[in-house]
Amino acid sequence: MTVSLNDIVSLAKRRGFFYPGSDIYGGLANTWDYGPLGAELKKKIKDLWWETFITRRSDMVGLDSAVISSSKVWEASGHVASFADAMVDCKTCHSRTRADHLIEGHFEKKGSEIKVEGKSMAELSQLIKDNKIKCPTCGGLELTDARSFNLLFPVHLGILAETADLAYLRGETAQGIFTNFKNITDSTRVRLPFGVGQMGKSFRNEITKGQAIFRTVEFEQGEIEYFFNPENTNWEELFESWLTAMKKFVTDTLGINSENLRTREHDDKERSFYSKRTVDLEYNYPFGFKELWGLAYRTDYDLNQHIKFSGKDLSYLDPSSNTKLVPHVIEPAVGIDRIVLMVLCDAYWNDTENNRVVLKLSPKLAPYTVAVFPLVKNNETVVEKARGVFDTLASKFRVAWDDRGNIGKRYYYQDEMGTPYCVTVDYQTLEDGTVTVRDRDTTEQLRIPIESLSAHLEKLL
Ligand code: ATP
Hints:
alpha+beta; single chain; 7-stranded mixed sheet; about 450 residues; 24 strands; 5-stranded mixed sheet; binds adenosine-5'-triphosphate
């Protein structure tokens, strides 16, 4: 990966993809706001995910469950007891760091790799001591032992604090699918195997530095629980088919270079005790290969936990055999913000030959598909003609309008936004009704009659 995270963060701020959260008040750690371009890009990604995995499949349905949920949900899921990161505090500067990141970062700097998932607090503390790992903020050597830090955000409901009920902001969207399993099977005509997908915000009290929108305290997930009967569905085949679907979405739908992707199998130590197989689809971010999308066979663990804790019968009645069963699930879970960051990193091109930065976004993802420029803004006829072109195109595409500065600068601005085509209305347009269409990647320009412009662009897209 040649692009640095700084390149991405500064482009994001310069052009309006994303900004640090609470910026005018000095920022709030691990929160980011999406700007006008980022909001468009993220929406396109979300729409493509929903369309691919829900709308176009007869075996899938969607859900939009509440962000705030009963503490019982999270007790049953195991999050209250064990959804925690190991943290160490620096006794000198009092900054807090994740123990696993601290250790992995230390070994990475030395050119070696270590995986610490699954290690106990004592083992992590020992690794830090043995390797004399320093505080990443001040360089101090006096760090506390690793301590468990729960990631769930509690919220207190109720008007009077004393009688408030404890609830949590959801730590993942998946639990809403399990808690609604019976509602869904009772209210729809789904039959096993089928999946429920949902997309929305999740919250984790994460502590990290310098990974931009990769790891935040508030983020968006696209999660699917695919329910099946293990007696008549081969889970290995189902697992493979989901892995293929995930990869296809990333390479074919989002246009990501497959060389920047890899899959990583979780070993027995790393895998949750209830999971039979877990694979991460990783992308080569500027800070190395990291999880983009997780795929796990979670067996019947979650539904059984909710049966145990709620006392409700969440089993499924198989209409063909008239027998009851608790379905098993395969869960593909992706972070939308991690997709946005991947798309930006993959598209970033420092075109040194033409001295410009280009976002080579797939036209499907570009916030604007086409930009329309009047060559000059002080000639009413040219501007009016250009407005006409804008209005015609706007019925089909997301169109940007720009009449400021010289044409070269306007092109470069659109290149950084990732706009695939720019249309310029000039003096020749007034004579022969043609406009120039400039291609973002090649910078080549063609003259096209206005009446064939829409069809021409549609063909290119
Ligand atoms: P990680 O190991 O990176 O902390 P995870 O294994 O805890 O991730 P999951 O619980 O499997 O993540 O969540 C599913 C997906 O949600 C992840 O693959 C990731 O893309 C995304 N995700 C998880 N935590 C965050 C976060 N703090 N910020 C942004 N995206 C996240």
